[in-house]
Amino acid sequence: MLKPFQLFMFGLVSLATVAHAQQPQGSSGERLINILDSQAKTTQDINLLLWVAGAFSLLVLLVTGGALWWVVQKYKVRPGDKPTRPGASNEPAQFHGNNTLEVALIGVPVLIVSVLSVFTALALAKVNEKPANIAETIQVNGWQFWWDFDYEKQGFRNSNELVIPVGLPVELKVSGKDVIHSFGVSNLGGRRDALPGQTNKLILTAAKPGIYYGQCFELCGASHANMLFRVVALPQAQYNEWVSKAKAFQAGTPSDPELAQGQKVFQANCSGCHAVKGQQGGAPSFPDLSFFGNRTTFAAGIYRNVENASELSADKGDRTIDFDGTRRPATLEDWIRNSAHVKPGSLMPAFDGSMHKVKNADTGKWEDVPYTKLSDSDITAVAKYLHSLKLDGIDFKSIPEITTENSSQ
Ligand code: CUA
Q1: Which of 145, 105, 98, 115 is nearest to 53 (CA)?
Q2: What is the pLDDT of residue 380?
Q3: Family per UniProt (predicted)?
Q4: Given pLDDT bands bounded at 50, 70 and 90, which one contains residue 29?
Q5: Does the beta carbon of 230 sit less than 6 angstroms from any atom of ligand 1?
């Protein structure tokens, strides 16, 4: 049996563990997310409940633990104690039935639970309240292993990066498209299960501009832990600018020969799945790459998206991966060459000519078939082309990342 003190310490350690879910990637060292650091109204409502319940728990612990301690100290048998009655053992007098005590033992917990349920009902009502001034409604779809953010009314999509205005509520309609996922962004207090065939609504209001860390919270397969995303909260004027530019975006034909080559390779190999506004092709079940050049990350939030690979380094907190015995952060070229090496379970075909198993429709047997092999210069051209897909004048690089290191500014 755990003693009250051990139980209390166990509780503290558990709380510290959930409060510090570690994020694997960032630009300046280890990233720690603190769920108690709320940057949204909903989180503040939930946290109030957490503190009230915590205070009651502490009170109960102190009263019961203190009473137990006092009783043990006062009544324990000491060497040399005499029996209370002649011929009796050292056992104290036995009795049963005490109305006052029994009423107190039932009444006090009922009172505590009643008070807590009032606070819970109030917090639930606040969290579920649908404000009249919803700034945007966004369809959120969880896929193995990435997030699709569909700005349905605006007519565009973005992947793994949810851009929202500061200070205004946004309504998210969360759904899963293949298996069960869970959408969660700890500092904004949002978490909803993403279930196939169902839509769960979630209202988020970011209190201040910043890039918030989000991730999938439901074990969904090989790259569950790699199913990250960012929430970019922009001041309202900047948000409106982003929306109007995203709406108007159309990929043109590049004049630069390398970019034109990249576009050609993209059209031949990638556009069957990936949509880019202004170009043919794409399907809603694959990430939309329309303004990929503006993204802060690639591969569902696990690597920083930079045009110059020399900016990436383990010293800056970038996650590394083994490439034939050398560990280094993955580049977009690595991702295109063999995405499943960079993110296990990725469904995107490799473009390095490696072998994979395909079932022969006639014989029913699995056969080794090579993937398409793109030349290094073609892969570089596609990466450059993707980085060139940008909204003019939009840059998220100067927006602070919200972590425990800088959240209390
Ligand atoms: Cu999706 Cu875990």
Answers
A1: 115
A2: 95
A3: Belongs to the cytochrome c oxidase subunit 2 family.
A4: very low
A5: no
